[in-house]
Amino acid sequence: MKRIIVLGGGFAGLWSAVGAARRLDELRIPLSEIEILLVDRTDWHAIRVRNYERNLADVRVCLDDVLSPIGVRRLRGEVLDIDLDSRCIVVEGLSEPIGYDRLVFALGSRLDKPPLPGLAEHSFDVDTYQSALRLHDHLAGLPSRPRSGARNTVLIIGAGLTGIEVATEMTDRLAALGGGRVILTDRAPWIGSDMGQEACKVIEEALRSLQVEARAGGTLISVNREGAGLATGEWIDAATIVWCAGMRAPPLAARFPVTHDRFGRLPVDECLKVKGLRAEFAAGDSACLLIDGRHTSVMSCQHARPMGRFAGYNVVCDLVGEPQLPLQIDWYVTVLDLGSWGAVYTEGWNRHVILKGGEAKRIKQIINCQRIYPPRTNDRRGILEAAAPRIQAPPTMTH
To answer: 301 exposed, middle or buried (CB, 10 Å; 0-12, 13-18, 19+)?
Structure first.
């Protein structure tokens, strides 16, 4: 039996596995001839982009609910190493490596925390479900602490998309606990620097309305359990410090003898095969693709999901000698949640504002709660159909 191994059960990994199963089904190749094995360290497909929200009840989907109906085998375990010469992986707890004929590397990205004094010990983040739950439990325990300025102050480091969403959601979260102060800081000269000037004006409006204190040009240098110090010499008393600055590909990406980009990502061609390699594909946050021939893919589910679908289709075709499908997406949108104020919806790489406020918020909720979820029906045909290698239209009120 031949074997396709998919590493990772996130947006790219899950859809790579389902996409591969769909293509085998189309070609009428039984799973007894080509096995699909997905390896992930948890039992869950995490809707990671919702970890900033207050309610975490529905931010995970059981992987087996999606994979079992379509015959994809799953192994829970931490991948420790990849041997590209021998075409095998090493998984923690297994005595023998697992061989593959084709591999899809889709282990996502990880928060890049620098070795600043106290940061690892005294900060929080929303990078994983477990870290988001840790922050949730910490916030719930704040009212039981002695009153102080630090107790009711939350400092968010990093004003990219995640940091802004954490900050704008945090005002309501603190209000439910009796109120507090939210400070959002970034070392860039303005808040939301990746969003462009037009969208930044909307973000500024929302931050003012929600009474989030924005501090541009602030570089963190140290942290303890009572606050944080900035390079300006300012000390901010805060019992809650949330790190939201910077993402990188996982360390295992370094095992590939290729030229990585500044985020450690693997360069892939238009069919998602790692450039210069024969049996390895990559998708999602771990892969760098010229998504429209000019711009590189971004670390988001917007690109990870179609990259996974096409990687799954192409890894089967590569193995059996069928033509592959190139992936190109000629549109790009950003829908940024701005808490109870609403959201901002932009189009294009220059982030032209199309909608803001409540109407944009409704689209954001459709994306977060419907569009990016896999089918949870246990229906084999429906699950396979959802992995068709097609480009979805941009999200609108009707999609």
So the answer is: buried
